[in-house]
Specification:
By secondary structure, the protein is mainly alpha-helical. The chain has two domains: 189 residues, 3 Solenoid (Pectate Lyase C-like), CATH 2.160.20.80; 97 residues, Orthogonal Bundle (Helix Hairpins), CATH 1.10.287.70. It is 46% helix and 4% strand. The strands form two sheets. Strands 4-3-5 form a three-stranded antiparallel β-sheet. Strands 1-2 form a two-stranded parallel ribbon. Strand 3 and strand 4 form a beta hairpin. Helix 3 runs antiparallel to helix 4, helix 4 packs antiparallel against helix 5 and helix 7 packs across helix 8. The longest helix has 27 residues. The radius of gyration is 29 Å and the shape is elongated. It starts with 12 loop residues before the first helix and ends with a helix.
């Protein structure tokens, strides 16, 4: 940038979008005045500008101002008031948002790499379903480029997780942790054991953040094994219980309910002993008992992790 302007003439739209314009005196006040026109601020070039304490809150409307697709690289937005501000598509790379108010701000599609969010109020921020680097990684044709973008996405999610943890926003922190681990997994070779095992952990419990998945997995396992017992057979007081095409619908339903009961007590390793597996059902019962003991232990770990935050 060149020498500061001696006057404070109102900047035109081209001036705001010009990356090589002359330095502007009191650019913070000029930006606030520009925002009050309620005309969307699009493509503004504000890299490295000192905007500390800037007030871009639209107090006269239920919708915030728009500062979209703009360049705020290394901009100083410390203590800025950005409540409900639409920053979608903008670059906040290495911007200083320390102690800024970002409540209900729209950061969808923003470049958040290296952004300083220490002390920033981030509750109810719209981050978008996928952050910028994650979207780019999915579209990348080069594997090396894809890995680099996933590494950046992992760093961003880690930063968001740490910020949320410091503010006690543990639900958000859990979501960002799950995304962080997902980005780390996608950097691994597609057919590697580590990647597949990581995917399995994600499916079962969302990396420890989704205890409901453990419950759903347990229900699915119980129903699957109940169906297998229904066809392979169980023993009750010396009588064989199994699907019989010659029996009535109600009789087969009672057999299935007995199989479901046996599956539950086997999965939970209660083992009352009133029903016993026969034939191939013995191997199935041993396998279900092993899966059940592991799954119940996993649920306790995940549940305690969530409750002790």
């Amino acid at each position: 940038m060149l020498n500061p302007k001696e006057n404070q003439a109102i900047l035109s739209e081209k001036d705001w979008q010009n990356p090589v314009r002359e330095a502007v005196q009191d650019i913070r006040s000029q930006l606030e005045e520009r925002a009050k026109t309620n005309v969307p601020m699009e493509g503004f070039s504000l890299p490295k500008e000192d905007l500390s304490g800037v007030n871009l809150v639209n107090r006269t409307s239920k919708t915030g101002y728009k500062l979209v697709n703009s360049d705020l690289y290394r901009a100083n937005l410390e203590n800025a008031h950005l409540f409900m501000l639409d920053l979608s598509g903008s670059s906040l790379m290495k911007a200083n948002l320390r102690n800024a108010n970002l409540h209900y701000a729209n950061l969808e599609g923003c470049n958040l790499l290296g952004v300083n969010l220490k002390g920033a109020k981030i509750e109810h921020v719209n981050w978008g379903e996928l952050i910028n680097q994650e979207q780019q990684a999915k579209a990348a044709k080069s594997r090396d480029n894809q890995i680099d973008l996933y590494q950046q996405a992992e760093e961003i999610y880690r930063n968001l997780r740490q910020t949320a943890e410091h503010q006690g926003l543990f639900e958000f922190a859990g979501h960002f942790f799950q995304k962080e681990m997902t980005m780390r997994r996608r950097q691994l070779p597609r057919l590697s054991f580590k990647r597949n095992f990581s995917k399995l952990v994600d499916l079962f419990c969302g990396y420890g953040e989704r205890p409901i998945r453990v419950i759903l997995f347990s229900i699915i396992i119980i129903v699957i094994f109940a169906t297998l017992y229904f066809f392979s057979g169980l023993s009750f007081s010396g009588e064989s219980l199994a699907f019989n095409p010659q029996s009535s619908w109600w009789e087969n339903t009672k057999v299935y309910l007995s199989s479901l009961y046996f599956s539950v007590v086997t999965f939970t390793t209660l083992g009352y002993g009133d029903l016993a597996p026969i034939g191939v059902a013995r191997a199935l019962a041993a396998l279900e008992a092993f899966i059940g003991s592991f799954t119940l232990a996993l649920f306790v770990v995940v549940f305690v992790k969530k409750m002790t935050r």
